[in-house]
Amino acid sequence: MKLRIILRYVFVLLLAFAFAGGRLMAQARQIKKADTAFRYHMYDVSVTQYQKAFARMGRKAKSDPDEKNRLLFQIAEAYRYSGQQKSAVRQYQRCIRSGYFKVNPKVYFHLANLQLAEGEFDNAINNYRDYLDYIPDDSAGIQGLRAAIVARKAATQGTRYQIENVRKLNTNSGDWTPRYYDAEGTIVAFSSTREGVTGKKNDAWTGQRFSDIFVAKQDAKGGWSQAEKLDQLGKTSTGANESDASFCKDGTVMYYTYCGNENKQKNRCVIKTSTFDGKAWGDPEEVIIGEDSVSDFVHPFITEDGTRLFFASNREGGFGDLDIWYAEGSGAAFSEPVNVNWSKDDSPEEIRRQRGQKFGDSRVNSSYKEAYPYLRNDTLLYFASTGHNSLGGYDIFRAVLRNGIFTDVENLDYPINTNADDFGICFMPGQNKGLFSSNRGGGRGSDDIYWFHLPDILFTISGTITDESTLQPVANAEVTLAGTDGMLVSATTDSKGFYMFDAGQVNENTTYKLIVEKRNYLGAEGSETTVGLIASTDFEHNFVLTPMPRGPVVLPEILYDLGKWDLREQYQDSLMDLIVLLEKNPRLVIELASHTDSRPIAMTNDSLSQYRAQSVVDYMIKRGIHSERLVAKGYGSHVPRTLSHAMVSYYNNTPYMFDSGVVLTDAYIASIKDKNKQEAAHQLNRRTEFSVLREDFIPTGKSNISALVGMGDWSNMNKIPFTLNPDDKPEIRVIANGMGMRAVYDPKAKVCAISVDAAMRLLQVGNLGKNSFKNKEKAFNADGEVLPGQHLQLKELKIGKYILPRMEFVTAEDLPAEMLINASGLAKIGEYTIDMDARQIIVEEE
Asked: pTM for the whole thing?
């Protein structure tokens, strides 16, 4: 009996041990399955597997807290990689509460990155700081903290970009990476996981449907057609992921990302290409890039001629998790890739040196992820990056090609970029508008396509000029606008004293000096700036002109030692107001007159007064006033002073009053009985004064306008600055018949052309007439509007310092700017070269 009980007890124990062992083995198998799914990038699947493994731990979690916390962290990682950001945030916070940050401080870093992407800037800053407490020298943490601080500030600011969700293209699934499919910019190809994709299963990585490439067409009114799959035959639309299509110029050759979905293995992403034969897309080929058959190749961008392929890859030799590379070739065969951080001509030694070099934010690839390249006009590389102090997640950046290397990385800022992922930009051909994708809040799906537009900023400067003494408008005053960009243009006030510089004359990021001139008035100056402005602005700048003084103007007291003429230092300040007046009125020529009293001295009063007047002139020349504007004249005692108003003169600290209208002749002074008052009268006669002789001064060797605005050596510059328009052609500022305009230089253009609108503007302000046109009256329609195709002659065209008389133009519509100048037209300035890097036209001069 006892033996039976003992055997039963042993059996129960063995059964319990077997059950526990089986449970442990099952748990181990479950964890292994989860780790395998995670390793194969099946993140959505691994979340479920890890959760099952965690649930099976039960009470064992208390005895093995390290494994419990590891599973919590792996669940958070799987959520993050599969794009389930909110779930990832909650899971990382759970890891922190369990103390896992002591084992792996990265939990703070990943949480901070997600909070930055969600716009929780203060929380992100705190978690970056907690992370840096454990790993203070980590560059990624330092950059993340800096990015969060910058993003918090940027959220209250913005650029002039306008954006709008293209709801017709978007669904409640993912829609991303738009690309214009045709040269006109009316057909768009994009990636989508919407209903109707070929794949019937969900992607184990994202949990969404497998993606296909779709297309939609935009009509003339801006409406979009219903999107449909690009390939209806299933050759480039399969059960796997196809995305990120890019096309050669004619749209018949496509490159795209293909990511396989084979079970129980790590699936590789590659680039494939397919050709359209006029009816259907052909069988795709995998693009072979160098000898790399291991790395992932994604997000292709093919140049218009199909000879250079940009892409993102995690291949060895890069700077971060994902870098942008390019390779040269055609079809499905391309050369060994070149990292865009260096030039293809760099030697292997130079490349090895650069791999160990830190470029900061000047180069494209960083220690973070760079992806979704897009090349515009062969010189501007747009890309997405989680580095470069992004505002959170991926931001869109731009880099400029200089000496074979893309550099000068610039963030496009809010509202293009937000704290979410913003990526996959493309431009409508030849225009500053296009499409991009983002998973920011307020969208329809996980990723949405957005339209953007960079509107022109328009500035005007206008105002009214009035007379200080009469408060009446001053007509026919000349107002000159001088810009730091070299633009010089003038306007004349109308009968109401009004002047205006329109949007074609006032440019962005320029500081202007306004100079007002009118005969018989002292000049006036003012300034306005458009630097830093991101919205159109109409500046109002009014002036009040002071009538030119008639007769001599007595300067503040300037005293000399008895019989001396040296200008004493303490009286030099008395001349400052006169110096400023002459600087503001550069056309004035004045006489500086010195007067003595009538009492005899060792030399003649005439000589002494001449020396004193000359001492004042010499000092003013030292202060920069041109010698030809100053005439010294000594009058001795020959011109007694006439008092234009009652005055007080001090002698021995006693004031003496003299009435208005008194002439201080010797007879008048002798009639004064008080000797001290006589001395006070003599003192009033000892004076220095100035009178305006004329208003037409122009220094020798300088042009009228250069003298007026004080541009220094500007008139001798042989370099004409330009910018690049959306078609990568030089755009310069010119003055056509006195009106500022934009002109695009196109050496291949057959004729020099001027837009119909620009010709009408010249007509409306009187800077052009019917006789300027070859066909005279026949150049206009019945409404008086200029017809296209009409030949006209400009009186003069000013490009930089060069004035080209009698230039002929043909009126046209749809020009890239107000004017188009061809090679023969620009050659009229002389021999020249174009420096695209320095953005200058350099004229060769003897």
From this structure: 0.56
